[in-house]
C-alpha cells in the first residue's frame, strides 16, 4: 500500500528509475534524507517535499493523487491498434483503451484517391503529423500543400481542414491530436 509518504516516494522514485542517490542528487538533498523519508522515519516539511518532487517534476497535489498502484500499459503491438477510420482511409488509434488519454496518436493510411470528405473537418484542439510514405494534399483554411515523406503539418483544428491522397500510391502518416477526438 502506498498510503504513507515514504512508500509513495519510493514507488514513484522506482517508476522513474532513480536510485536513492540519483534522486538525492537531482533534488539537491542528502541520500540520508531520501532514505529516512522512504523508511517513514521522518516526515518531510512541505518545502523539502516540493524540492524533492522537483526532480520528477511533480507537484505536491500530483504526488498525493498519483495512483501508484495502477498498472498501466506502455507498449502496443500493431494488432492492438484500434481501427477508427473507414472506407479507403485507415485510422489506427494507439492506446484507445487508456482512460483519461489527453493525446490522440494515430497511424493513418490513405488509399490512392481517398480523402477525409468534401466537407472540411473542424473541431477543438490542435493536430500535427508527419508523412512517412506517399504524398498527401493537406488543406488548412485557405492554405494547401502537397506533402511527401518527411514533410509535416501542425495547425489549430478549429480551422477547417481536409486531407487527400491524389497520388497513385498509398500514403502513410503518423499524426497526433489534442484533445482526442476518438
Structure overview:
With 182 residues, the protein is α+β, with helices and mostly antiparallel strands. It folds into 2 domains: 5-65, lambda repressor-like DNA-binding domains (434 Repressor (Amino-terminal Domain)), CATH 1.10.260; 78-178, Jelly Rolls, CATH 2.60.120. It contains 5 helices and 9 strands, in the order H-H-H-H-H-E-E-E-E-E-E-E-E-E. It has helices at 5-15, 20-27, 31-38, 46-53, 60-65, and strands at residues 82-83, 89-94, 104-110, 126-133, 136-140, 143-147, 152-156, 161-164, 171-178. Strand 5 (136-140) and strand 6 (143-147) form a beta hairpin. The relative contact order is 0.14. The model has no long low-confidence stretch (mean pLDDT 92).
Topology:
Layout: H1 5-15, H2 20-27, H3 31-38, H4 46-53, H5 60-65, E1 82-83, E2 89-94, E3 104-110, E4 126-133, E5 136-140, E6 143-147, E7 152-156, E8 161-164, E9 171-178
Antiparallel strand pairs: 1-2, 2-3, 3-9, 4-7, 4-9, 5-6, 5-8
Helix pairs in contact: 2-3
Ranges where pLDDT stays below 50 over 5 or more residues in a row are: none
Shape: elongated
Report the sheet with the most strands, covering strand number, pairing sense and barrel closure: 6 strands, antiparallel
Mean pLDDT across all amino acids: 92
Strand content: 25-35%
The CATH first-level class of the largest domain comes to Mainly Beta
Helix content: 10-25%
Q: What is the SS-derived class?
A: alpha+beta
| Major sheet strand order | 1-2-3-9-4-7
Rg over CA atoms, rounded to whole Å, is 23 Å
The domain count comes to: 2
Task: Look up the CATH topology of the largest domain.
Answer: Jelly Rolls
Looking at CATH, the homologous superfamily of the largest domain is Jelly Rolls
- Alpha-carbon distance between the termini? 34 Å
Architecture of the largest domain, according to CATH?
Answer: Sandwich
Q: Spell the H/E element sequence.
A: HHHHHEEEEEEEEE
How many E strands? 9
Number of helices: 5
Amino acid at each position: 500500500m502506498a498510503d504513507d509518504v515514504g512508500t509513495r516516494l519510493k514507488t514513484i522514485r522506482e517508476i522513474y528509475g532513480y536510485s536513492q542517490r540519483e534522486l538525492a542528487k537531482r533534488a539537491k538533498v542528502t541520500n540520508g534524507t531520501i532514505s529516512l523519508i522512504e523508511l517513514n522515519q521522518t516526515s518531510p516539511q512541505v518545502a523539502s517535499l516540493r524540492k524533492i518532487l522537483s526532480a520528477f517534476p511533480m507537484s505536491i497535489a500530483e504526488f498525493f493523487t498519483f495512483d501508484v498502484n495502477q498498472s498501466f500499459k506502455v507498449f502496443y503491438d500493431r494488432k492492438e491498434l484500434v481501427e477508427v477510420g473507414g472506407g479507403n482511409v485507415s485510422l489506427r488509434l494507439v492506446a484507445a483503451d487508456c482512460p483519461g488519454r489527453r493525446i490522440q496518436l494515430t497511424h493513418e493510411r490513405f488509399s490512392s484517391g481517398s480523402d477525409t470528405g468534401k466537407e472540411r473537418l473542424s473541431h477543438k484542439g490542435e493536430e500535427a503529423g508527419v508523412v512517412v510514405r506517399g504524398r498527401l494534399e493537406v488543406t488548412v483554411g485557405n492554405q494547401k500543400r502537397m506533402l511527401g515523406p518527411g514533410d509535416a503539418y501542425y495547425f489549430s483544428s478549429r480551422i477547417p481542414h481536409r486531407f487527400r491522397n491524389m497520388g497513385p500510391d498509398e500514403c502513410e502518416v503518423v499524426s497526433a491530436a489534442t484533445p482526442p477526438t476518438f
